[in-house]
Structures are given as structure tokens and as C-alpha cells.
Amino acid sequence: MPQGRRKTPFSGKAKKEQLKAKRERRQGENKVPLLQRPGGDNESESSSSVRKLNYQPTKGHGSKPNRYALQFFSESNEEIKQMKEFSRQVLVPVEEKDLEIEASDFFEDALDFPKRPAWNFNLSKEQLEAQENRYFHEYLNKIEVNYDLKDLSYFELNLETWRQLWRVLELSDIILFIVDVRFSATMFPPLLYTYVTKDLGKDFILVLNKIDLVPASLVVAWKHYFQQHYPLLKVCMFTSIPSYNLVSQKADKGGLQIRRRKGRLHMAAEGTQKLFDVCQSLVGDKVNLTTWQNKIKSEMHEDIENDEKVEIGETLHQQNETGFYQYEKFKGGILTVGCIGQPNVGKSSLMNAIMGKKVVSISKTPGHTKHFQTIFLTPQVRLCDCPGLVFPSKVPKPLQVLMGSFPIAQLREPYSTIRFLAERLDLIKMLRIEHPYNDNTWSPMDICDGWAKKRVYLTARAARLDTYRAANSILRMALDGKICLCLRPIGYLKEKEYWEKHVGVNEVRWIKAFSQEEGDGEFVPETNNSESSDEEVKNEDSDEDQNVKSETENTSSSEDEDDVISSNKFALLGGANKLKDSHQRLHHTYHKSSLYI
User: Fold this and answer.
1) Does 475 score more than 90 pLDDT?
2) Alpha-carbon torsion angle 512, 376, 265, 339, nearest 10
3) Which tops the pLDDT comparison, 572 or 430?
4) Dihedral of CA 443/447/452/454: which sign?
5) Are residues 367 and 160 in contact, defined by beta-carbon separation less than 8 angstroms?
6) Is the pLDDT of residue 178 over 90?
7) Is 88 helix (H, G, I), strand (E, B) or coil?
8) Of 258, 282, 323, 523, which has the fewest beta carbons less than 10 angstroms from its beta carbon?
């Protein structure tokens, strides 16, 4: 197609001047105070100290695809350089007791989250949005004044995402806060609990999700921890992948069971039943939940009351309205349950498991759910799926990466997270790697180089070891649960035997849908020969679940399973906790072949 004008020559000198002007503009942007940074609507303004993830280029002014983009503070180039240098230093193993945590270590009363400012019906939509923008900028400025940003974790800087939370809190009769049980205390903000139960006066349910990745005794310990510290909190346990959603097979050698996920999704009936019981106790006779109960019974192949036919309602993608909403409890005889949580805790998967079919798209990439959506479970029950929100806290940034709050693919420096993981788990044994440089000491960079050498990850031009790709691969396996780090409540090690014999363990096994013959699905017969046991697990790994992938999973991650002794459950602590004598047990998970102690 002919151009409208003739091309004009562009000299190298003019190009240098253009680049110089661009650098000066960037330097000027670095000096913009936090108070003047945009809250999310204005895409024309930006600051290099705020990093937008999942950002998409725009051609016109008709749409704003970046309205809900995740926004976090960005490290400077000098900080990234220092962290990379530190990644070459020797690992220092951490004691097993240091895995015990307290929620108060990460959340302070002064480190609050943004709440919707007061409004009235005399305000127009424009006035309300201007008021919220002004409040949010003042909130961020206050945090910058009172805290050193280096001491804080990544947290959401997009006002539009916080508006989604405000809207769901206003709509919902019951707030369902979902956490990954592996990092439950680091994901649960106590100030949100206080705000919902006291300021809003609404019921609050905590769901300990992904219980298939940890021992049953640890799940029970975390449940009692939250019940003890938060009296008004109702706690449920849940897994989106119960036993009947998996296919049992036998390994060629060793006789250990390998289970793979079925293609068709079935309702997680046991976990849904527990959630129903809690909702029924909170609602009473104010809302008729018979249809929901019949739906669960039909999935359990039990008799349905009144032989009522159960149908699933449609999914409604709500517009992001910031206008007024007058809350009315159980409006129209409908129970509204708002699902809230940080990214990658399994909110959308939980909703699909409750529904018994895929109604919400899922992804391992944080920020996949852009705005809240309403799904009618039954004509009397609807669920509101809120986008994942990262609350302000002092959770270490490497731990946030392992939690799935920050996209691994966009990490500028992944080696700090590898260090955090390697100092708490014996990655060298799990990955079965040899030192790439025949040394006796290990650093995070050595582990990545060793994995790159084993997987033959090489750079395109120079054919050097692709260290960054190896680090990315290890972190993805940690996020998937193939290398599993589990944090524990304070005092767990002292009372470990008590929790293993606790009556609540049977409830956890029931939710996982294990038969009495199967037990917990985690144990294999005790053996005194650790080498032979490792060989059995190695044979398992060769046939592991290659077909279990999410929509956005990197295809190379499925190959990595074959070379990993998965640490699922309590893992092998690096250096400080070697495999002990014959009294140690080798544990096997039904979901991914694994060892934990």
C-alpha cells in the first residue's frame, strides 16, 4: 500500500538525540512522588517505580485493556544487580523450627488495606470516582512515609482492582476468604477479618484450600490455629481434586500407586458438603438452600428430597460499576457468597469444583481474573468471584513468588527465591543434580546451573547454560506442588504426634475422598532401605502426570517431573535435616509422587 508521504532520511546523530531525550524523560519520571502516581484509570501517566504486569499496548482511546493490570513497586537496577551477586554466595540451611510462623509477624495494625471512603446519594459518579482516587493516593503516600518500601511485600497498586473488592464486600451476605493451606498465615490479613466481622457485621468463612498437597495432621493444626485466634471465623477445608477425580494406576516397579487427573470434572462433593453445612448454620431458615443440598446429594448418589431437578444458573460478568448500591441482606431470597483471596489460591478452581463443571476460566498467571463475576449455583445461591488481591504485608518477596502472588515469568531476579527454597528444602537431592563445577559448596546459581545442565537448557547463540530458564523451571515446579514448601503454625513440631492422632485427620481424609482401605493416600510401607525407596519413587516419576496442565502452563514443566523427587508434604530440609535412620518413613502422595518427612 503506497504511503502518504515520501520517507525522509534519519541520521545517526538524530537517533542519538532521540535516545538522549528519552533517557531524560525517564529520569524525570523517577522523581515523580507517589502521591502523583495514577490509580489505574489513567494510562497516559506512569512512573518507572511502579511496574504494570500483563500490560497490553493500546492503539486507540476506545478501550482500556490495562484498567485491571496488576501493579507493584519495582526494584531499581542497582538492587537487581546486588541480588544477582548475592546469588553466588553459599547457601545457609535453615532449621526446621524456622518454618513455624505467626500471622502477626507479617501483618501490622498500622499496615491497613484501602477501604471504600464514605459516600452519599448526593454525589455524582464523577465526584465519587474523584473522591476515591484522592483517597487512594493519600493512602499510598501514607504508606511511603511510614514504611521503607524495601521492607514491604509486593501489594496491589491498582485502584480498579481494589474497587472490585469493595463491590464484592458490598454485594455479599457471606464473605468466603480462600487461602492456600501451605502458606495460610501469610495470606490471611487480620484487619480484613476485623473489618468484615465488626465494621460490616457480616459472616466470615475461611477456606483452607489445596489440602491434597499437605499432610492431614498439618491441615488440622492450621484449622485449630485460626479457630483459636479468630473466634468469629468459620473454617472449612477443601480440595478441588478429590480422589474420584483421579485415575489410579500401578507403577511398573515397586507396586506404588500413581494417580492421574480425570478429563471430566466432577463436583468436589465432600468439601462442598462441609461448606454447605457452615452456610446453612449461618443462614438458618432465612434462605431456602434445599436445592443446593439436593445437588450435593445427587452427586453423592443419595436420595433427593422431593425428587427435585437441579439446574445450574448462568454466569454473569458484571460491569465495574462504581455507583451506589444499597445493601439488603438476602435480597430477593438469594444468598450471595463473595469469594476473595490472593492470586493463585484456587478461587476459580474452587468455584468450578463446587459447580461440578467449568464455569470460570483458570490460569496459573496472577491477574487472570480481571473483574468480579457472578455465578448462580442454584436459583437461591450465587457466588461472586473477585479478582486476586495482594494485601499490604511484610511477607518476604521470595515467599510471595512461591505463593503465586507474583508472575514467575516476569521476575527480573529469580535467584533470591531459589535461595529461599534451597535453604529450607534439599533441592539437590530432589532434583538429583550434580555440581556443575565439581565443587563442594552450593549456591543458588550452582543449583540453577546444575538443573540447566541436566535438562540441557542452553542459550541460543553461545550455547551456555541457561541459568534463568532453569530457575524459572524450578519455581514453576514449586508453584505446582511438585516441589512443595509447607509452613507450619507455632508449636507444631512439639505437638506433631498429637496432631497426627487427632480425630480431625479422619475428616480431612473424608474430604479428600479416600476409602478406609486407602488410608490417607500419603503413606507407603515403612522401609529401612532409603536407596531402594528412592529408586521406587524414581520409577514412579517416569510415568507421572504428563497430561495435567493448565491453559497457560509451559510445556517444558511437564518434562521436569521425570527428574524430580517431589517434596510434596513436609519435604526434605536442606543440609540441616538429613534423612535420618530407619525410623523415617517415605510418604507418597496420591496426586504427585513425593517424599516428605
Assistant:
1) yes
2) -50
3) 430
4) positive
5) no
6) yes
7) coil
8) 323
**What residues pair up with 385 in beta bridges, in sequence order?**
339, 373
Mean pLDDT is lowest, of 239-248, 301-310, 490-499, for 301-310
- Considering only residues 520 and 432, tell me which one the structure prediction assigns the higher pLDDT: 432
Site of grid cell 478461587: 347
Decide: 126 and 360 in contact? Cβ < 8 Å: no
Q: Which residue has the cell 499432610?
A: 215
Model confidence at 537: pLDDT above 70: no
- Is the separation of the CB atoms in 106 and 186 below 8 Å? yes
Q: What is the pLDDT of residue 450?
A: 95
Region 30-34: mean pLDDT is 44
**Residue indicated by cell numbers 545442565:** 453
The DSSP 8-state label assigned to residue 338 in this structure reads E
Query: Tell me, what's the pLDDT at 185?
Result: 93
| Alpha-carbon dihedral sign for residues 219, 225, 228, 233 | negative
Amino acid present at 518: E
Q: What's the CA angle centered on 401, arms 399 and 406, to 5 degrees?
A: 135
Terminal-residue alpha carbon distance, the chain: 68
Q: Provide CB contacts within 8 A for 498, sequence distance 6+.
A: none
User: What is the pLDDT confidence band of residue 209, given thresholds at 50, 70 and 90?
Assistant: very high
Quickly count: other Cβ atoms within 10 Å of residue 576's Cβ: 15
The burial class, CB within 10 Å (0-12 / 13-18 / 19+), for 150 is exposed
For cell 503516600, the residue is 141
Total number of residues shown for the chain: 597
Lookup: cell for 273: 458438603
Residue type, 514: F
Q: Could you tell me if 494 and 223 are in contact, meaning their C-beta atoms sit under 8 angstroms apart?
A: no
Alpha carbon distance 514, 212 (integer Å): 11
Largest CA distance in the chain: 83
- pTM of the full structure: 0.74
Q: Which of 327, 321, 279, 290 is nearest to 176 (CA)?
A: 279
Q: Which three cell numbers stand for residue 327?
A: 445493601
Given the C-alpha cell 496459573, which residue does it identify?
364
User: Looking at residue 37, what is its pLDDT?
Assistant: 43
Residue 518: CB partners within 8 Å, gap ≥ 6? 243, 590
CB 535 within 8 A of CB 527: no
DSSP states along 256-288: -EEEEE-SS----HHHHHHHHHHHHHHHTTSS-
